Amino acid sequence: MGRYVARRLLQMIPVFLGTTLLIFLMVYSLPGDPVAALFGDKAADPATVAKIKHDLGLDQPIWRQYWDYMSGIVMHFDFGSQIRNGRPVTDILGDAFPVTLRLSAMAFVFEIVAGIGLGIVAGLRAGRLADNVILIFTLLIISMPVFVLGYLFMQGFGVGAVSLDETWGELVGPAVVLGSLSLAYVTRLTRTSMVENLHADYMRTAIAKGLPKRRIVGVHLMRNSMIPVVTFLGTDLGALIGGAVVTESIFNIHGVGGTIYDSIVRREGTTLVGLVTILVIVYLVMALLVDLLYAVLDPRIRYA
Question: Which of 83, 139, 175, 207 is deepest in the core (most CB within 10 A)?
Answer without folding.
Answer: 175
